[in-house]
Design brief:
Distance between the termini: 31 Å
Strand content: 5-15%
Radius of gyration: 22 Å
Oligomer: single chain
Number of strands: 10
Order of helices and strands: HEHEEEEHHEHEHEEEHHHHHHHHHH
Strand order of the largest sheet: 2-1-5-6-10-9
Structural class: alpha/beta
């Protein structure tokens, strides 16, 4: 079991120089595991601490795992993880990392929100990985700050928390708040925190141990480029898709899209059919339906508001398109999610 020593947290500024005095004391992390948290993001956050101790030849970091009630937590892939304790009081200077995953809004209980607010009043550095940022936002800890979250949750997060400066960066360090997107973004964030606290040599040695050769910064974005995602390198096609993705709520006509890239509507049609085997209209509709499904699964917005946020002015047309694409209705999709959460 990990030690529960309570020393100072890492310095959460990407430009900070290592502090020799602080380096003499181990730094303590507390990982709060939410129900159905994402295992890969959690592993990417905790393993750098173990390896930092190994490459330094001394204890730079200690850590503990906690849950709301001290019971084991089941992650999104079904694996059950034991914890050290419940949400007991921590030392004022421990760094708290909230590990989220599937339906973080439902996993974040009033007790967890109260505990996070208490930790914030005590001055703890508090972070969120994957969808853990949602818990911080719900607790009001990210108001008027920069933050990030997994790209799949970006739209619903922006709808729920308009007061937060949401970015598409892989991670964000903003004062005593740190957030990272899902997957390996937690590793990039932790390597940066290691470099801030103990120098780049330690962080690079940890990256080498992980065979991680390209550490991303807070200026890097989450998603692959459009050409990489669609498997086609065609600048005009990529530009049209970029415009579509930025105009989901207020769709642009095929004629306007064609004009944006100096093509005729017929040429644009041929371009999409050649490379994507579908018309521009169908591709655009699929993008909007994907947005709608994310909102249905991740927010409590009404079906009508989801339709409007996805560019459908007619609820009946929205339902018809949704059924044709997903073989279910928006209402049944919402009901299926509720039923699954109740199991």
């Amino acid at each position: 079991m990990a030690s529960t020593t309570r020393p100072p947290p890492p310095v959460p500024q990407s430009h900070a120089a290592p502090d020799p005095a602080a380096q003499a004391m181990p730094r303590h992390f507390a990982f709060l595991l939410l129900d159905r948290f994402t295992l890969i993001a959690f592993s990417a956050a905790i393993e750098p601490l173990r390896l930092a101790n190994r490459v330094a030849g001394k204890t730079l970091y200690t850590w503990q795992l906690i849950s709301e009630n001290g019971h084991p937590v089941t992650c999104s892939n079904g694996t059950q993880v034991s914890v050290h304790s419940g949400m007991e009081d921590l030392h004022k200077e421990a760094t708290v990392i909230v590990c989220g995953g599937v339906d973080a809004n439902r996993a974040t209980t009033p007790a967890i929100l109260a505990w996070l607010r208490k930790r914030a009043r005590y001055g703890n550095v508090i972070g969120g990985i994957c969808t853990g940022g949602w818990a911080l936002a719900k607790a009001g800890l990210l108001d008027n700050r920069r933050a990030t979250i997994h790209w799949e949750n970006h739209t619903s997060f922006a709808e729920d928390f308009p007061e937060i400066d949401l970015t598409k960066s892989v991670f964000v360090l903003d004062g005593t708040r740190v957030t990272s997107a899902g997957g390996m973004a937690a590793l990039d964030m932790m390597l940066t925190l290691l470099a801030n606290a103990h120098g780049s040599a330690v962080a690079n040695s940890v990256a080498d141990q992980l065979i991680y050769s390209s550490i991303r910064t807070n200026r890097d974005t989450q998603r692959l480029s459009i050409p990489a995602r669609i498997g086609v390198r065609h600048p005009k096609l990529a530009r049209v898709i970029e415009i579509m993705e930025s105009h989901i709520e207020d769709p642009i006509s095929p004629a306007e899209l064609a004009q944006e890239v100096d093509m005729s509507t017929r040429q644009l049609e041929r371009l999409f059919r050649r490379y994507l085997n579908r018309s521009p209209k169908r591709y655009y509709t699929e993008l909007r339906l994907e947005r709608a499904r994310n909102l249905l699964m991740q927010t409590d917005m009404s079906v009508i508001n989801v339709a409007l946020a996805s560019g459908f002015t007619s609820p009946s047309h929205f339902s018809k398109c949704y059924r044709a694409h997903y073989n279910t209705t928006p209402y049944r999709e919402r009901g299926a999610r509720s039923s699954d959460d109740g199991e």
